[in-house]
Here is the input.
Amino acid sequence: MNGGKPLKVALLGCGAVGSQVARLLSEQANDLSVRVGAPLELAGIAVRRLSHQRPGIDPALLTTDAVGLATRPDVDIVVEVIGGLEPARSLLLAAMKNGKSLVTANKALLAEQGEEIHAASREHGADLYYEAAVAGAIPLLRPLRESLAGDTVHRVLGIVNGTTNFILDRMDTSGADFSDALEEAQALGYAEADPTADIEGFDAAAKATILAGLAFHTRVTAADVHREGITEVTAADIASARQLGRIVKLLAICERSGSGVAVRVHPAMIPRTHPLAAVGGAYNAVFVEAASAGSLMFYGAGAGGTPTASAVLGDIVAVARNRLAGTRGPELSTYAELPVLPMGDTLTRYHVSLDVDDRPGVLAPVAEAFARHGVSIQAVRQASRGDEAQLVIVTHEARDAALAATISELTTLPAVRAVASVMRVEGEEEPS
Amino acid sequence: MNGGKPLKVALLGCGAVGSQVARLLSEQANDLSVRVGAPLELAGIAVRRLSHQRPGIDPALLTTDAVGLATRPDVDIVVEVIGGLEPARSLLLAAMKNGKSLVTANKALLAEQGEEIHAASREHGADLYYEAAVAGAIPLLRPLRESLAGDTVHRVLGIVNGTTNFILDRMDTSGADFSDALEEAQALGYAEADPTADIEGFDAAAKATILAGLAFHTRVTAADVHREGITEVTAADIASARQLGRIVKLLAICERSGSGVAVRVHPAMIPRTHPLAAVGGAYNAVFVEAASAGSLMFYGAGAGGTPTASAVLGDIVAVARNRLAGTRGPELSTYAELPVLPMGDTLTRYHVSLDVDDRPGVLAPVAEAFARHGVSIQAVRQASRGDEAQLVIVTHEARDAALAATISELTTLPAVRAVASVMRVEGEEEPS
Here is the structure.
């Protein structure tokens, strides 16, 4: 069974993920050979600098000629773990044109230029697998693309960025404010020196793009995603959420909304009883609601060299099996062509905390402001603090634009001293 | 894309799952057609009695000739949702012999006679998919078989029976004893009139058999599984677990242990902080530990007609795509051929609660009994209750046979009035 001709693997990139892929290909060679039906042989590793120290990697495999390696006639499978747009894009396109099967972990490229990449995969009949691009080790794309192929997905709610989850988790458990929690995350290696991609939600938005496309069989690009990071989440927001039995998480949300789909990344309050609420530290988890399957959740390590390499290896086995069988995996289907709604048209719920005068007659003008914009209030709670009072309002579902307009108006009311916090509420049944 | 020749589906069984499969095939026809690349057409439904009322099912599709339907020359895909050993076994074998692709939800058959069924699938080159056989709607077998194909699974810990999870959940939240909680489960439809298969662990053991085979690439049959149900779990066990920050769950456990694999189903105490601890009611969840991926968890509805039908539909789409591509899914691999260890050789930890005399000098003979069997004690807690005391002992890992022998000896000690409870402890790092 494993006596067949070896399948040759070209590895593009040898960083945290790539070095682990190389190690596992060697350490697991016997198992992989039986599971695939032929040995997998590492044909070469494209790197930027040959001089780097790479313990455990045979220097003879290294090359700086990534294009040459990706298109080498004897290579069957190209694994791209460089990340970013270029040169990854050109390398993938060249490899597919040359009949290679592709495995990539490149979320940014798929989110920004997925259409071109998928079109090339179709044109050249090339396998294109990318389980590692979203939520690291967690098997998620294969279940969405294959296990739920006979179901209708309504909503995907995911914690898909470990750095921000670690920060929010610290803020929740220790009462720290954002900048202290970020510093701690950086000290522990959970956040990079330049944390922008994580804390501003770019990373989560790229993953939301990919998830929405798979879940709704619709073309979605990064520009379609409404994105807010966590830099403006305050210790007061976290405390206010806690008082109401909720917790703040940065969520990637993909959902059917009205006649289209809404794709967004923003901090939100979810009930502490929601399965996602217990996802702590740098873990990831994705909650899927489907018409027949009901609620599903997938949980695990969302990043890290070795966990991500596990997902890459699973894809390598899949494309290798396909290659031996002379077939390929299911294409990305975009037949549904649902419109991606602008954020203003998306239905959401708001949690609003106001600092108001502590005197009778304050609630009426506030309630009128909501009513004028057609926003229905679900719950109000008022707490006195000296001559000031805190007024917390949670709304029913409404168009996001109507909610935003309400907030604008609240800031103009004489009785409202400040809008202390505004945050969306997710993961709850719409109360009646 | 969906203009191809229809693929014809024969449905064997029209109960809770079958009727939902029939409904979804009809309601989702357009989506399924695009996703598969050809329309799926329900060719017929084999039932035991034609006289039954079946709302929404076209009576012209019904037949009592299951063999005739499963082997009909125009049928491409046979879906078996009858359950049990016969006639399901004969029907599957006949269908594969006649070149059909197979989808089944039959855990009992795969656990008891999986070897024969898989051998027939290999011999006839027939696809055999059975995602719905374990944990209902939760995509679990495909991730194990494909996503983790490049990884090494160390352990699978699963809550795979909703009935027993509901009962234990009720006992934990309300303090009810087993018989009251069972009665409530029966009244609510979560337990059958004859609950034996669930409460004695047979259902969970069948699922453990299937999971262990996939996780360890090893032949496992139902007879290899050590099985204990929940009928002897007492309110006192539950209370004692709670005092120690643990909760009692019926677990299906598949793990590498020493030189082989251990497969077992029994109630166990797990820490309340473990992701499985929060899985309440009739939900299922499976926790997987793999060398590279780390800890993963899959959560969702483990039973019910519609959720299970979602998994069946996903498999129908997969085998239909394979059929159109002239290929088939990965075969069950059993190359590792690891020995399945007898329970006595399995490494476990015990939680033991003893009623003892409340006087000095009791602990010494108890500790000696453990030591004589080579069992190391991790923690001891003693609470006085009048002239009697409760002594709770949690052990380090040891051979199950040594632990069982220790318990036998404890019952003979003069100072020990009764062994009040013995339960295994799982899901914790072995403390040092």
About this structure: Chain A has 14 helices and 18 strands. The domain at 141-301 of chain A is CATH 3.30.360.10 (Dihydrodipicolinate Reductase; domain 2).
